[in-house]
Write a structure and sequence with these properties.
Blueprint: E1 2-6, H1 13-24, E2 27-30, H2 31-41, H3 44-54, H4 61-71, E3 81-84, H5 90-102, E4 109-114, H6 117-133, H7 144-158, H8 160-167, E5 171-175, H9 180-191, H10 200-230
Parallel strand pairs: 1-3, 1-4, 2-3, 4-5
Helix pairs in contact: 2-3, 4-5, 6-7
The chain binds adenosine monophosphate (AMP).
Adenosine monophosphate binds next to helix 2 and helix 3.
Length: about 230
């Protein structure tokens, strides 16, 4: 299974990704995590990304596309993956389409987590408070000013992907403001919809067709019996 989770910072992509990873036995590929690891390791990519990430802007498309292309070729991604935080721009989505089709792969679904922007500030504030309480180091970009920039970057550069994937017929939208379990259930319904029951109109026309067939059969039988009876 190959999925994309789309949503602004704080929409719950990480939480839902981790659940989907367990449920489907796939790997979570978070470009944010990969970039933070590159920054921590001081690699050339990390050096390029460090200041950009710290001020809440998006890293260059070519950098991110290259790390994703490399990552999805790793053996643990063979069974499938969930892309968390990628693509974030239309050129990244186009590059992903090319990358997948070159490997004979396709996306199984794109889940959009719809969240009210005002809720995001509270969620990130909670996330920061909880991390502080656990004595964990904070992310360089987890502060209100940078968060505003990241949400704006999502609105301008990433939100157009909703239409992009709707056009491809692979988009499912879910209310990301519902409790975690409800969001999870809604995502599962998008990925595995129940077989549709025939609608009222369809059921009626099926009955009419069945009746017509039976009338035809009965008439034909009657005709045969009449012919046999009269001996003609
Ligand atoms: P995240 O952990 O997904 O919130 O990402 C943290 C930061 O990493 C973002 O604010 C960007 O600076 C950078 N980043 C992560 N993914 C991408 C991407 N697909 N394209 C560009 N920049 C990214």
């Amino acid at each position: 299974m190959r999925l994309i989770l789309l949503g602004p910072p704080g929409a719950g992509k990480g939480t839902q990704s981790q659940r989907l990873v367990k449920k489907h036995g796939i790997v979570q590929l978070s470009t944010g995590e990969m970039l933070r690891a590159a920054v921590a390791a001081g690699t050339p990519i990390g050096q390029r990304a460090k200041d950009i990430m710290a001020c809440g802007e998006l890293c260059p498309d070519d950098v991110v596309v290259a790390i994703v292309a490399d990552r999805i070729d790793q053996p643990d991604a063979k069974r499938g993956f969930i892309l968390d935080g990628f693509p974030r721009t239309v050129p990244q989505a186009v590059a992903l389409d090319r990358m997948l089709s070159a490997k004979g792969m396709k996306l199984d679904g794109v889940i959009e987590l719809k969240v009210d922007a005002n809720i995001l500030y509270d969620r990130i504030a909670n996330r920061v408070a909880e991390a502080k309480a656990r004595g964990e180091a904070l992310r360089a970009d987890d502060n209100p000013d940078i968060l505003r920039k990241r949400i704006e970057a999502y609105r301008v550069q990433t939100a157009p992907l909703v239409d992009y994937y709707r056009g491809q017929g692979v988009l499912g939208s879910v209310n990301g403001m519902a409790p975690i379990a409800e969001v999870a259930a809604a995502i599962d319904r998008v990925l595995d919809p129940a077989p549709a029951k025939p609608s009222g109109k369809k059921a009626v026309s099926k009955t009419v067709v069945t009746c017509c067939i039976w009338l035809f059969v009965v008439n034909a039988l009657l005709g045969i019996i009449m012919i046999a009876w009269t001996g003609i």
